[in-house]
Amino acid sequence: MYDRSGVIAELESALETYHGRAHAVLTSSGTAALHAMYAACLKPGDEVIAPAYTFFATVTPLLHLGVRPVLADCDENGNLDPADVRARITPRTKAIVVTHLWGIPADMSALGEQAEQNGLLLLEDGSHAHGARVAGRLAGTFGVAAAFSMNGPKPLSAGEGGFVLTDDETYYRVLLFSQYNKRCLNEIAPDFPLRAYARTGAGLKFRIHPLVAAIALEQLGHLDDYLQGRAAVAGRMREQLGRLPGLIAPVLPAGTTASWYGLPLTHQPEKLGGLPIERFHRALLAEGCREVTDHHGELLRCPA
């Protein structure tokens, strides 16, 4: 579909309603959503503080746009450490991009305060965190814009696809980067400075496939039920695994609801006689763990 119609319009409207944001733009992938969000908000030469622990697509689109990522350390749950972010802000810093890793929301109060105090844009990579909440507020509603993925086993999964959420004229810039022709001509205001480029946009076609959008629309109606099931499973696993020596299960901050894209566990070799993580990982596979990732995030499977 070349414009905002049919199932595309239905899904975008449903995402806007669910998140309480003015605009949703569907894309072909989460990486495309991140790319479009960055292109709408940043320019070559800008610096962006990003988490050192994240999927590489949080950062690689910045490099394609000539933006310099500055990696900051992460806390025990894998999210940006506000103290380290503060230490990395310079006059060249334009934005902070937050990944809610494994579906556990980051400390948006502290990170939002730093962004506001320093005049920085706050951007969100919510690809793991559909439906996750901080003090009742959904992930993806804190920043100027937020990008999400819907591929594979994401909490909201359509097999593939992504979307950008935003409230302001960033919407027009997202459209110009990720769409072109009829959609931009129909939606971009005549007095917008870049209206002259509406027909061609940036020349990129990041549109979602209608079949994927239809799957996502069906899945969105069940998202909160799915999240309740994930929370029940994660709760049991955290309780049981947290009793074992050598493992730390994640502890959620007060008022936080995770979407549990994954369950991150911290290995404590000092509690296991110095057992290296590689041997510990091999032992898990040998004991029948069918699916487990190593400390590099690579998915390994135990042979049947």
What are the main properties of this structure?
alpha/beta, disordered C terminus, 10 helices, three-stranded antiparallel β-sheet, 304 residues, seven-stranded mixed β-sheet, Aspartate Aminotransferase, domain 2, 2 domains
SS content category: alpha/beta
Low-confidence stretches: 299-304
Instruction: Please name the CATH topology of the largest domain.
Output: Aspartate Aminotransferase, domain 2
Q: Please give the order of strands in the largest beta sheet.
A: 1-9-8-5-4-2-3
Q: What is the multimeric organization of the chains shown? A: single chain
* The CATH C-level class name of the largest domain: Alpha Beta
The main pleated sheet reads as: 7 strands, mixed
For the residues shown, what is the average pLDDT? 93
Q: How many separate helices?
A: 10
Kindly report how far apart the N and C termini lie: 43 Å
The domain tally reads 2
Which geometry do the CA atoms define?
Answer: globular
> What is the CATH architecture descriptor of the largest domain?
3-Layer(aba) Sandwich
Helix content: 25-40%
- The run of helices and strands is HEHEHEHEHEEEEEHHHHEEEHEE
Beta-strand percentage range = 15-25%
**Superfamily at the CATH H level of the largest domain?**
Type I PLP-dependent aspartate aminotransferase-like (Major domain)
Please report the total strand number as a whole number.
Answer: 14
